[in-house]
Structures are given as structure tokens and as C-alpha cells.
Batch of 2 targets.
Target 1
Amino acid sequence: MMNIMKTAAACFVIAWIALGTGVAQASLSNSDKEFLTAYEKVRSALAADDLAGAKAAATELRDDGIAVAKSSSLKEARLAFEALSDKAKQLAAGQSGYYIVNCPMLKKDWVQNSEKIGNPYYGKEMGSCGEIKK
């Protein structure tokens, strides 16, 4: 009985430590992975100042991407992208292969799957402006 209690206590401590460090994140569902894949396409298009590409990629996000898909300018698309970034940050937190990046000038975050900064808010004007938070 004592060994069972010690084992249970050790498992609890390991789980508590893992949760506290973000190691024990639940794996992403297929729909979450699809969202992040389409989101990355939108981010990449905005970083390249490609409104048509961003709008096309946003259609893959279904209801989540409507505002970007209907935008009539890069400025409008970038404003709509902020809401997508909020969801992407929640999904990507603690997941390997995703980087949460912050633009210190605009004080805005986004998620990308590369360490090479590609700022979707400034595009080509200041494409490398950003710092990886994670």
C-alpha cells in the first residue's frame, strides 16, 4: 500500500511540474492543425504584401477567415488578422514547431512556424521586425 501511495505521489509531482512548464500540452486536433496551417498561409501572404494570396488562404479558415477574405486592402486584412492571431496563439502555446512572435513597434503578436521573422503587420516595409517570445 505504501509503494502505491509513493508512486501516485511521484506521478502527481511529475505531472504538476510538466503542466507548470508547459511540457504536458495536449496534442492538437486535426482541425486545430488545419487552422494553424491555413493561418500560416495568411500570415505569409500578408508578410509578402500579397492581399490576393491572403484572401485566398483565408477561405481555408472557413468562418474564422471571413473578415480577411472580404477585406479590400492590406490594412483591412491586417486588422482582421489580429483576431486570427489570438486564436492561433492559444492553439500554438506550448506546442513544438510554432513560434509566438511580437512586433515591439506595434505591440502585436502572431504565430509562425519558422524562426525567421516574417512580420504580417508591416509586410515588406519591415518584414524582419519582431522578436520570438517562445
Target 2
Amino acid sequence: MKTSVKILLVITLVLSATYTQAQTRFGIKGGLNFSTASFSQNGVTATPDSKTGFNLGVISEIPLATDFYLQPGLLFSTKGYKMSNFSGSDLSVSTNNIEIPINALYKLNAGSVKVLGFAGPYIGYAVSGKLKSGDESEDIKFSGDNKMMNALDLGFNFGAGVEISNFQITAQYGLGLTNTFANFGDTKVKNKVFGVSVAYLFGGK
């Protein structure tokens, strides 16, 4: 856990150092998450039901070349999924995550509107979570002998949207690449999140 926190701090400091570049814009971002997961156990695969959550945080936009930008962010993002009749009862998993996306962004001018396309990796870290099975509920343990889930989540984002004045309206898909479950034999669970967001950027042209 300490190592993961250090990684997040180092990345945040590196991103902060880039903020001094000319024409860099800063903004706030928020929206909805519709999350589920890819689930496999003993050779059987399944797609759990989705859960609705949210994302909220700050982003910056750093010019790299004409119409190309680097758009890192620091977000609070909720994820999870639901499964019916899992081992005889309904299962619900919810996690609260700190997430750092680092997207390459391209803007296509279309008159008063700019069309956006972006993609890039993300690093996430679960700070808390809740597991519900039937009528029972417990906090998810991310460390120790009774560890239930891995806190670190690495993945890849891609999406599209439009920019109108200082507003960016986007839709994106986040594909988790790491197994988030621990100590459950060959059980593998990877996050899958569809999100819609609105951002407002200050500064710049």
C-alpha cells in the first residue's frame, strides 16, 4: 500500500511540474460512471450487471503540437458491479478510487465546435470499498492476511467528445488490465467502465 501511494504522489508531482508550461489550461471535471467487470472463475466467464457511480476531479490540458494535447487528471471515481445468484446469493461490489488518467488528445476544428478524440493509460488506487452478499455487508480489505481485493488498478481509456467554448462534453470507456480480486483461486476480475463527463477549462485561448 505504501509503495502504491508513493507512486501516486510521484506522478502527481510530475504532472504538477508540467503546469508551468505556457498555454496550459486547467479545469474541473465530473460525470457518471456505468461500471461492470469481466469475470472469470474455474474457466467460466460472465459479465456482471452494472452499477451507476460518478467521477469528479481536476484536469489540465498541455499543448504538444498543433491540435495535439496531453490531458492528465486527478479524479475520484467510484466503480463496482452486481451479480445475481453468486454462490447462492446476490453479490454487490463497490470501490472508491483515486485515479490518474494521462490521455493524448486530438482536436478537429469544425466551426464553432471542436471534435475531440483521446486515449491513454490510467493508474487507479482503491481507498475503500464495500462488499454485500445477500443481507450481509462488510468493508473490503485491501491488505493483510484477509486481503480480498488488490487496491492497484491499471488500465487504458479511450473516448470522444466535443468542445464548445470552454466546455468539453465527453464519453469514454475504461478497460482495466489488472486483476482486482485476491485470494480467490483462479478468480479474475477486471474493471470495465463507461463514463460520460463534462469539464470546464479555465485559461488559454
